[in-house]
Write a structure and sequence with these properties.
By secondary structure, this protein is of the alpha/beta class. It is built from nine helices and nine strands. It has one domain: Rossmann fold (3-Layer(aba) Sandwich). About 35% of the residues lie in helices and about 25% in strands. The strands form two sheets. The protein has a seven-stranded mixed sheet with strand order 3-2-1-4-5-9-8, sandwiched between helices. Strands 6-7 form a two-stranded antiparallel sheet. Helix 6 runs parallel beside helix 8. The longest helix has 14 residues. The radius of gyration is 17 Å and the shape is globular.
Length: about 240
């Protein structure tokens, strides 16, 4: 993109220790615990043959899915995060690799999830195309991303262009730098359609009143979208 950044894979490996602390301090990531993951979980179909976790990170998604009865296989490009996922358990297999070059045969999985990971891949078309290849016809892809409108006003002034960015946060004594790519909504929906996916549901989760009571900082997310969830089905080539 000509912006002087290295690859997103390198960025997430560099920030892996901070991310592990950010995710593993109980009650710290209230956006995940009280809003994003509960809503995403409702979007998922029941456990089937095998579930692929694309961009599994330190493994919190796979651990949760395994308790629901999913047989989970994960892939991530960060060796550090993958090692943490392996130590914590919940996966039948974990692979360090590129989402745009998945190492499995065609039609291996009936469900793939990409929970907060597709904004963090450099090659969106390649990753989605590979997910379509390893899914069986009729298989589902469920994804969660930062909502394309959940950006500072200055970033939205050029909404239709893709922008690589790094944004640092400090909360309750923990710090994390998020490096991702801002993409317009159409970049995702067009890529999904071109790979043979039919969108079944598109949701903008809002925190419940109970969640806001438990975590008052979620109040803003009740007035504007923070996350976007999509469930889609892979169409038969016939």
């Amino acid at each position: 993109m000509g912006d002087g950044f290295g690859s997103l894979s390198e960025a997430w490996e560099r920030n892996a220790p901070d991310w592990a602390r950010w995710t593993r301090v109980s009650g710290h990531d209230v956006y995940h615990e009280q809003l994003n993951w509960p809503a995403f979980r409702e979007l998922l179909p029941p456990p089937g043959r095998q579930t692929l976790d694309v961009g599994c990170g330190e493994g919190r998604g796979g651990r949760a899915l395994s308790t629901d009865g999913h047989r989970v296989v994960g892939i991530d490009s960060s060796p550090t995060l993958l090692g943490l996922a392996r130590e914590a358990g919940g996966y039948e297999q974990l692979v360090c690799g590129d989402a745009a070059a998945l190492p499995w045969e065609a039609a291996t999985f009936d469900l793939a999830i990409a929970y907060m990971s597709l904004q963090d891949v450099d090659d969106l078309r390649g990753a989605v195309g590979e997910i379509a290849r390893v899914l069986e016809p009729g298989g589902r892809l469920c994804l969660a991303i930062v909502h394309p409108l959940n950006r500072p006003p200055e970033a939205l002034e050029d909404y239709f262009e893709e922008h690589r960015f790094a944004e640092s946060f400090e909360r309750d004594g923990l710090s994390m730098t998020f490096e991702s790519i801002d993409r317009p909504l159409e970049a995702y929906t067009r890529t999904l359609a071109n790979a043979g996916f039919l969108i079944e549901q598109l949701r903008e989760p809002r925190p419940t009143e109970a969640a806001r009571d438990r975590a008052p900082r979620l109040a803003k997310a009740a007035r504007r979208p923070y996350f976007l969830h999509i469930r889609c089905a892979l169409q038969s080539a016939d």
